[in-house]
Amino acid sequence: MDQPLQTITARKRVAAYWLTGLVLTLFFAGLYDVEWRGSAPLHTNMEIIATLLVAFVGAMALVRFYTQKDNTYLFIGTGFLGTAFLDGYHTVVTSALFRPFMPSDLPSLIPWSWVASRQFLSIMIFLSWYSWHRSQRLGPDSKVPEGAVYVFSAVFTLASFLFFAFVPLPGAYYPDPLFHRPDEFGPALFFLMALIGYLKKGHWRKDIFEHWLVLSLIVGFLGQAVFMSHSGQLFDYEFDVAHLLKKVSYIFVLIGLLVSMYSIFRSAEEGEGRFRGAIESLQEAFAFYDSSDRLRIYNEEFLRLHSGLNDVRKPGMYFEDLVKASVERGTIKEAIGDKEEFIRRRLKQHRNPVGPILRELTDGTWYIINESRTSDGGLVVTQTDITELKDAEAALRDREALTRRILEASPVGVLIVTREGRHLFANERALEIQGVTREELFSSDAGSYYGTPGLRAKLKDELHETGFTPPTEIELVKPDGGPYFVILSSTVTDFEGQKAHLTYLYDITDRKRAEQDLQESQAPA
């Protein structure tokens, strides 16, 4: 069974972390006694590159933060921008041009201004992890405010600037045979704590940015703890390699940011494609107006429904202009003869949507408008074409009117009654047979006309089992108590949107009475 892709990726990344650390350590050990000597101009050029690089990384991190707010990127963005300032300051004050104006000489100024930049960055990256850890422990409300991060970064950077500008610095190199610059362990410690924190966080397994950030922290830690701490003098092998590794660590973060932002933009593009595909698949017309009431998104059904405006309709058009164009071209039936009042009323409905709006166009099109506000003040509008439904309703009304006329003209009594016994329709012949007015019939229960109690319930149950009641001779009772006889037949039908019984009454009272008179005359005296 194949291992999940995520597990394989995580193992490859772990291998990359170990390999990076091992290669740098072996590189240091293999070249430990190299007699390399750089120079002040080389150092200045390297720091110019580092300053430009770290400034770009900081700007990219803040762009990433404002793309999808996450305090990790806020701390890293402000940290790298502050580092850019300190690296730039380090570049300027350690160059030969500014050397005469500084209170400290290069052997002190270069190492200490280097450490200030590294210490600041290491602390800010550690805080980026700690901020996440704190919010996980205490909840989202514990997130450090955005303004506080900017203020802290600015104050820390300014304090470093003022310190090196006005305070004479002690020597930075010590005669210890192993660690000539123990002050490098300050930033190394924060790089290490940040590294451990991000490894424990675990997002490096699936988050491409945090993967490259971990690589950057490994390089930053080794650059401080292994290389720069062993530098015995300015511009030696360890000194220049540490400066090179600083730029490599910046590049790693930059790679992570670029890949991360590419993923975001690609996901956004794919999401927009899916969104547009979804709105195009809607049977309803769809339009979105932004918070300034400009038309931004719409689908093909919207274009079809408003085809008379295709020459003026365009993205960015105000809703009010769209309404006015519709009114001026006479496409809205309701607006004819009352244009100004219609526009005023429609804009009021649009600004305060409360429910569906039924609209008829002059070409016979009917549609229902639904509007709803979004959280950012935009407006989503859907328009459902109900022309076919309206045509079907009109046809149904015509059919019902025809049916009523036919039933009214029938020589047979016709009743339409619900299962519960409520009368929905009766023709004149039915009223005549039952000896009631229409008002009396519609205010009475159908079961009250049956001479035999429970007979209607029995016939009703049989009707719903079989779908019809065959012609059945029954005795009914008029409101005045007089009996009469009918042949009754029923079927189940739909009437005015509900199930009902269509019942035919054929009056046989005269025949029954004639039969009774005949039977009485033939009876023995």
Features:
525 residues; alpha+beta; 5-stranded antiparallel sheet
Notes on the protein architecture:
This protein is of the alpha+beta class. It contains 16 helices and ten strands. The strands form two sheets. A five-stranded antiparallel beta sheet has the order 2-1-5-4-3. A five-stranded antiparallel beta sheet has the order 7-6-10-9-8. The mean pLDDT is 85.
The spatial strand order of the largest sheet comes to 2-1-5-4-3
Sum up the overall morphology in one term. elongated
Low-confidence segments: none
Enumerate how many helices there are, as a single number.
Answer: 16
Give me the count of strands. 10
Radius of gyration: 45 Å
Mean of all residue-level pLDDT scores:
85
Distance between the termini: 106 Å
Most strands sheet: 5 strands, antiparallel
Per-chain topology:
Layout: H1 5-30, H2 40-67, H3 71-93, H4 106-138, H5 146-166, H6 185-201, H7 208-227, H8 237-281, E1 285-289, E2 295-298, H9 300-305, H10 319-328, H11 339-351, E3 357-360, E4 366-373, E5 379-385, H12 387-409, E6 413-417, E7 423-426, H13 428-434, H14 438-442, H15 455-466, E8 468-477, E9 483-495, E10 498-507, H16 509-522
Helix pairs in contact: 1-7, 2-3, 2-8, 3-4, 3-5, 4-5, 4-6, 6-7, 7-8, 10-11
Summarize the structure.
The protein has a 5-stranded antiparallel β-sheet. Strands 7-6-10-9-8 form a 5-stranded antiparallel β-sheet.
